[in-house]
Amino acid sequence: MATRDPDFMLSLARGLAVLRAFGEAAGPLSVSEAARRAGISRAAARRCLETLARLGYTERQGRLYHLRPRALELGYAFLVSEPLPRTLQPVLEQVRDRLGESCSAGVLEEGDVVYIARAPARRVLSVSLSVGSRLPAYCTSMGRVLLAGLPPSERRARLAAMELRPLTTATVTDPEALLALLERVAAQGWALVDQELEPGLRSIAVPVPGPRGEVLAAINVGVHAERWSPEAMQERILPLLRRVAELVAPAFRARR
Which of 13, 87, 88, 123 is positioned for an S-S bond with 117, CB 3.0–4.6 A? Predict the structure, then answer.
């Protein structure tokens, strides 16, 4: 995290790393756990947590620190200042209503897919997702679409920086096998992931194209494997997602 850039505020970076640690832990944190997850010293983590507590973002209860509702203001600031979620939401809801399945949009951030809009269906799997959620890119349909949109050398570098863990018995974790999959995704223009993130969950994603063929974002639909076969997803969901991606592409291009 250290840098010699005079415009870089190390203390702010540490504080933000501690806030992100709460999302990774999905619960309260001790000073030691915050330090480990944020990659900073215990002393720095304690100062960050105490500062956040005095500002109203965290609260200490015994040895543990909890996020307070004020932390929601940080995410809300993005939602009200960024036009993309507002543009995407009604489109994703139309897809959700037509298929009866959840529809989401995401962008690539380091080794993760970050959800920027989502229209959940009433049928919910154990994966709980909302705007701001992060999932590993290597084993998700949106993640593979986004990684496939990178130059081959960058794909390899991104995978090398990830912890490729088997989340199910179907998860592909071999780097060379993943690179081959990404090459196929880049060629065909879509990705289907079958129960690699969670048993029973299939998802299919397409890229949102930029004016020069670059991938700006991804849109996907997640379904239960008992309701949809891979063939049915390609036949019914894929054409709809492609039309939606072309429809929302101008909004992404205008943002850049």
Answer: 88
